[in-house]
Amino acid sequence: MTEESTTAWHTVYYGFVHPWHCDVMGHLNTRHYLAMFDDASYQLLFEAFGYAGGLPEWDGLGWADVHNAIDYKAELNAGELILVQARLGRVGNKSVSVEYQMINRGSGEVAATMSATIAHFDLKARKAIPLSDQMKERASRFDSQSGVSKSRQER
Q1: How far apart are CA 43 and CA 49, in angstroms?
Q2: What is the CATH number of domain 10-144?
Q3: What pLDDT is stored for residue 6 in this prediction?
C-alpha cells in the first residue's frame, strides 16, 4: 500500500510472545509474525465483512491471501505482550488491501507492519469471486467506525 490510508486503526488481535516463539537469537522468530498477522486477519474479516467460516451464510465462500509483505521494525522477546491493529485500504471488485501493525504493548513501539491483499474466494470453484454490494457497504461502515463491532447482531 503506497498511499497513506485515512481510515481508523482497529485492534483485531492480542497476543503474547511465548519462549517457544523465539529462535536461537532470543527474539520472536519470523514465522510467528505471519501466524499472528494471519490470526488477526480472521478477526478483521469478521469485523469488516461478517465472515466466519462456520456460519451457514458463508458456506462454500472464503478468502485467499494473494500477497503479504512484512517489514520488521523492532525485536519482540519472550514475555512481551502484543496487539495487532488493522485498517482497510482499497476495496476492489474481488479483493481488499489491508494494512496491519504489530505493536509491543509495553513500549508502544511498532514491531512489524504487514500489507496484504486478500481475495474473496469460492471454495468449490477455487477462484476469486466479486464482493457483493452488501459486503462493500459493510466495509465502508467498518472504515468509518473507531472500534470493532460488539456482536453478530450488528451485521
Answers
A1: 10
A2: 3.10.129.10
A3: 60
What tens digit of pLDDT does each residue of 36-66 get? 999 999 999 999 999 998 899 999 999 999 9
pTM: 0.87
Phi and psi based region of residue 79 (left: phi greater than 0; alpha: psi -120 to 50; beta: remaining): left
* Cα 135 to Cα 133: distance, rounded to the nearest angstrom: 5
For the record, the C-alpha cell of 77 comes out as 522477546
Report the DSSP beta bridge partners of residue 120: 63
- Cell numbers for 10: 482497529
C-beta neighbour count of 82 within 10 angstroms = 20
Q: Left (φ > 0), alpha (ψ -120 to 50) or beta: where does 34 sit?
A: alpha
Could you give the angle at which helices 30-49 and 133-144 cross, rounded to 10 degrees?
110
Query: Taking residues 54-81, what's their average pLDDT?
Result: 96
Can you give the residue ranges of every domain in the chain?
A: 10-144
